[in-house]
Amino acid sequence: MSHWFEYFPGHHMWSQGMMFGIEMQTWGAAAIGEIDQIGQKLKAHVGDNERWWQEWTAMAQRIEGFADGEAAAGHQLTAGSYYLRAAIYYFCGERFIAPSDRKRDTYRACLRCFEKGIARRYPQISRVLVAYEGTTLPAWFFEADVEGPAPAVVMFDGLDNAKEMSVLFGGAEIARRGIHVLAIDGPGQGEALRLQDIPSRYDYEVPARAAYEHLAKRSDIDAQRMAVMGFSMGGYYAPRAAAMEPRFAACVAWGGHFDYHEAWVRRRKIMESGGTKISAPSFQLPWVLGMPDMAACMKKLENYRLAGVAEKIRCPFYCIHGENDNIVPLEFAQRLYECVGAQDKTLKILGAHDGGSDHCQEDNRQVGVNLVADWLAERLGGRVE
Prior knowledge:
The chain is of the alpha/beta class. The protein has helices spanning 12-22, 32-42, 49-72, 76-94, 101-121, 163-169, 171-176, 190-194, 205-216, 234-244, 260-272, 284-289, 294-300, 330-339, 365-380, and strands at residues 125-132, 135-142, 150-156, 180-184, 221-231, 250-254, 317-322, 345-350. It has 2 domains: 9-123, de novo design (two linked rop proteins); 124-385, 3-Layer(aba) Sandwich (Rossmann fold), CATH 3.40.50.1820. An 8-stranded mixed β-sheet has the order 1-2-4-3-5-6-7-8, with helices on both faces. The longest helix is centred in the N-terminal third of the chain and has 24 residues, at 49-72. The chain is globular, with a radius of gyration of 19 Å.
């Protein structure tokens, strides 16, 4: 059974980039027909990352123009739908171009459209700033429809995603279970990286603790029922945070990482041999880590390991992983699960028959998020329906 839809056969990075966009259609933030129009123009230029940016941003500008027109006509819901799609197309467009003013400006366009879109389509989402080491970390708070102090989840991104996606594909389903969601760009992620130049750090309990303390001050949050989760590279960040910050009541690794250094040792071999099973361009890791080159990156990554750390996790733990994940091999999730010290721990493996068997369910995001949301509801006391 086929388990991965490759829009551009033989070019995994671009195909994964297409899936980033396509899967957002579930939450009203993409239209498959529009993305296919982009893809058809790109088929003769596979691997040309400059052309990738041009086609995605051209579509984003077109859709934003429609949004502005509908807003002026007083059709706010229609405008909101257009704005959300434009936001995601801008973000997909900047994905493969190197750090630059143009990349930052494209992301600012994403933010501009996203804020206009959620104001009209997702008024439950509000922007918040989390105090962090003399500055702030930007986040979206998805307010669940629930009365009184309720459980909450702090949700971190991965290597190349941002809160503008995760608050929708993760936040919407979790909030439906009566759980508030803080989708936050931590160090090395999204807006914190692009507009504030805050690089990643191995001790992710520091930003996670800042998020915890921010939420604990809110009267609508039950601080005793707060979880931490992360997807892709966040599958390292969240377990690290749960191990070192015992106040978290549950932990989700949406894609399990055990040794991020070893993961990149393997990826470098693939890149150096000309392999295509990679998810990000060569500039991404040095940019995220704030390092000048790959040699410096590998040195910094020596601390990004969960051996001797995962054993300290005591709260309920859930790891969901695709059997056919060729970005983070299943072996890493299995090693993480084996070392986690919690008595209540689950490793959910999805195969091709289940759907969602690829990296972080990028082949079927709905499958992954519903399983995660149900587990969180059962552990945190949310709505189980």
